[in-house]
Amino acid sequence: MALDKNFLWGGATAANQTEGGVLEGGRQLANIDVLPYGEDRKKVAAGELEMLDWKEGYYYPAKEAIDMYHHYMEDIRLFAEMGFKVYRMSLSWSRIFPNGDDETPNEAGLKFYEDIFNELKKYGIEPLVTITHFDIPIHLIKEYGGWRSRKMIDFYTRYAETVITRYKGLVHYWLTINEINILLHQPFVGGGIVFKEGENKEAIKYQAAHHQLVASALTTKIAHEVDPENKVGCMLAGGSHYPYTCRPEDYQEAIKRDREGYFFIDVQARGNYPNYALKKFEREGLSIQMAPEDKEILAASPVDFVTFSYYCSRTVSAHPEDYEQATGNLFASIKNEHLPSTEWGWQIDPLGLRNSLNQLYDRYQKPLFIVENGLGAVDVPDENGYVEDDYRIDYLEKHVQAFMDAVEIDGVELLGYTTWGCIDLIAASTGQMSKRYGFVYVDRDDQGNGTLRRTKKKSFDWYKQVIATNGEAVRNQIPSAVL
């Protein structure tokens, strides 16, 4: 089974990492806008340090990002030149509803995205739209405490219904919440949560998760009612966990860690809480408040397809203190001696992508979509802005072959593939520009200096050829591995 002739090749970005124009066109501040560059970034992201406005002495990368707000026509033209079939992007909630709880939407924000969708349509590029990608209006955090409040369900669904209705016919593929499991690891980024001293953090995180899961199900229902042609997906920060040894307790730890993420998708794809989660709540005394109708809401509207990001696999043990830890990734992992690492310590494992695809497809039997995959690296351009990024081509080539094997050899149903950061953008984890993913180099540094000039890297033409041949260009370079 080869890749379908309508396989959706493309790239992915997020509004908060590309747009800039933070206070233009009626937009107001969102949580991601106040994540500073530097050592305090992690504490703010984790909800351990309150920062709900811009403060003196800090640099905030999202404030201008790569200024796609003013450059989107140029950027889409480059995507079209590569042959994109799909462009995964997100909407800025605070550009549509500046405060989040506004009675009426901001027309300037709605028109901005409508213009983008029409520009994509001009080139025959299908938008894959994430309704919220680490993006919560600051007012909702100040006034209601972010997703810890059940009121967020109504605010989110009003926003979702507004955009799904407005863009009927222009958008057919929707994702409700980006990397929903990040809520457990960076509660401010994923849920707009700032903890107070003495609070039960686990209880708050899982209560917020429940609110998000209900909102996601209601949004799926709305999307199907507005347009039966709409397809709605969920989104997991993916990557399988390997046991470091064959000790049974290490294998058990791998299962446990996989379930931390699968929990969200189990609910979104199957429509009910898995028993292992209910037992966790019981065992740890987590009292999750659920309305009487919630169970029915979740059961009535499972998602149509499952999407995930994949950058690396992770290796775990019941005794992690005995081993060297990998660095750089948000998820704790032991260093796997069988794998090379990126400059940021993320371990490179193309076969792990194939493994993850098989695990997800076996688990859900729903179409899958890889919506983030890429190599963050330091690129050194020549005097013309050109980058010889063979290291990126090598990384992507091997991962493309891995997912083609999952389709052609294993029978996984895969809708498409969008590389992360198809144009250089602000790295979510560090706020750096120097951690680059794109096929297009953007002249901007970690302190916000630069011309914002766009130039094509070597990988630009490589990916153009991959798309033009529906992956055959990669097959000719790397032989398949049959299990």
From TrEMBL:
UniProt xrefs under Gene3D superfamilies: Glycosidases (3.20.20.80)
Pfam families: Glyco_hydro_1
Enzyme class: hydrolase
Keyword Hydrolase: yes
UniProt KW keywords: Glycosidase, Hydrolase
Molecular function via GO: 6-phospho-beta-glucosidase activity
Active-site residues annotated for this sequence: 372
EC number: 3.2.1.86
Family under the similarity heading: Belongs to the glycosyl hydrolase 1 family.
NCBIfam families, A to Z: PRK09593.1 (NF007158), PRK09852.1 (NF007356)
The protein's name: 6-phospho-beta-glucosidase
Species in which this protein is naturally found: Candidatus Enterococcus murrayae
Gene name of the encoded protein: ascB
